[in-house]
What we know:
Blueprint: H1 10-14, E1 45-51, E2 61-69, E3 76-85, E4 89-94, E5 106-107, E6 110-118, E7 121-134, E8 137-147, H2 157-160, H3 169-172, E9 176-180, E10 202-205, E11 210-212, E12 234-238, E13 251-257, E14 272-274, E15 281-285, E16 288-295, E17 302-305, H4 307-310, E18 329-336, E19 342-349, H5 352-356, E20 367-368, E21 370-376, H6 378-381, E22 385-389, E23 402-404
Parallel strand pairs: 3-9, 4-8, 16-21, 17-20
Antiparallel strand pairs: 1-2, 1-13, 2-3, 2-7, 4-9, 5-6, 6-7, 6-10, 7-8, 10-11, 12-13, 12-22, 14-23, 15-16, 15-18, 17-21, 18-19, 22-23
Amino acid sequence: xxxxxVCKSALALAIFALLLAGCGGGSSSPSAEATSTGxxxxxxxxxxxxxxxxxxxxANGAFTSVTVCVPGTNTCQTIDGVLVDTGxxxxxxxxxxxxxxxxxxxxxxxxxxxxxxFQDGYTWGPVATADVAMAGEKASAVPxxxxxxAGTPTEPSSCSSTGTAENDLxxxxxxxxxxxGNWRQDCGGACTVTxxxxxxxxxxxxxxxxxxxxxxxxxxxxxxxxxxxADNNGVLIDLPAVPNSSxxxxxxxxxxxxxxxxxxxxxxxxxxxxxxxxxNFTTTYNGKPYSSSFLDTGSNGYFFLDSASTGLPECTxxxxxxxxxxxxxxxxxxxxxSNGASTTITFSVDNADTLFQSANTVFPxxxxxxxxxxxxGLPFFYGRKVFTAIESQxxxxxxxxxxxx
Length: 405
């Protein structure tokens, strides 16, 4: 439960701006349905739960279930314990959790394989195709990643040198990652070109070796939400507040698909912060702006600055990297979007060592260090309705990418 899992994808940090014009290719297909009427329950609400995850070791992890099917068939499987991550795009499932035969993707006669880089490690595995269903929504023929698939060649050093492998349940702490972030694809235009601008995420693999390759927009792992026939312009994460600063055992909430498409996903009075080409906004703390800041359900704490900047002592031993103040400490910071809109946030930090000694898995005051930016992880989402709009998709507040709360 005490593992530090920061699932903000490095893709969103560095790739989108390389070839901005090439990202999000294809025409927009937003849902513009009328407000739902009658007594039928909304078809766009997916249950999520914050708990210790399928490996029993997670703190502040929001999990859901995802149904995948062999494309165009009724051969399907529902997989539980999938981490909900607004900091990345694309569905990645542990191959060990998938017991149906999904067709693999190929490029020039070889298997298309991906090395997905997160801040705390990487996942390695082939790209496959599946129909993806959640709540009453379905996306057809979605490229996904099968992590740690048997028979895949060992990842080359260009992948393994990027961090720690997270290719099984004990290392990932989840049966998969559902990336529902701001981008349609997980790489965009940068992975469609050869040469130094290609970040080297996709590989062409034979039975014995792998070489970096290009991947077209349609071949890349896709954010399944934008491929829904409706409610496809973004997502609303709705988690209740945690009244006790020491946390709770579990927490139930909702992932609601679409923004302004049904009566249950209206923006209301939420403040919209548009994002820069890297998917970031600016957080100002103590008068200093940090322009590489973001909201991320896949990060399991507030991650900001270092002890010298915050005045918070770090934990020692197993909990190194977390903050361990002697008593609850409050902070105030201001978030500002590229559109100039801003909000002031007050949040508190407690002693991580003390928190982890409890039986709880939900911690609204858990925080650790992070150089040069503010990572507003899952604790930020407690007690807020937080919207994530997908690039180029039409919404009542204009096309994404943006966040709102």
